[in-house]
């Protein structure tokens, strides 16, 4: 099940920092990033990078994969609402359903677990 407005990872990180009573500067130091970079992430002005996801897994917890899935869910939802699809032409009718499902099965695993996780976070 898709979330309509998945949270930006920065919002989740900010909640954790508030709970831990950790300042922006303390967070930036723990992450070994510039305070300005931390600020852009926490204010949702920058997307989470894979490198920051690896650092977050150590500093805040969870796994880099979960942090990236959160970012991807947020970014995809934003794109789905922003992209004008009215002039697009579908080519998918030329693909067989089984080939699409097989490819998807190779690319994704644990989506149900991820969906439950982000439902609990929002």
UniProtKB/TrEMBL annotation:
Q: Show the Pfam families listed in the entry.
A: HTH_3
- For whether the record's keyword set contains DNA-binding, the answer is yes
GO MF entries: DNA binding
DNA-binding is among the record's keywords:
yes
The record, for Gene3D superfamilies, names:
lambda repressor-like DNA-binding domains
Outline the extent of the HTH cro/C1-type domain.
13-67
Q: Which domain of life is it from?
A: Bacteria
Which keywords describe this protein according to UniProt?
A: DNA-binding
Protein name per Swiss-Prot or TrEMBL: Addiction module antidote protein, HigA family
Lineage at the top is: Bacteria, Pseudomonadati, Pseudomonadota, Gammaproteobacteria, Enterobacterales
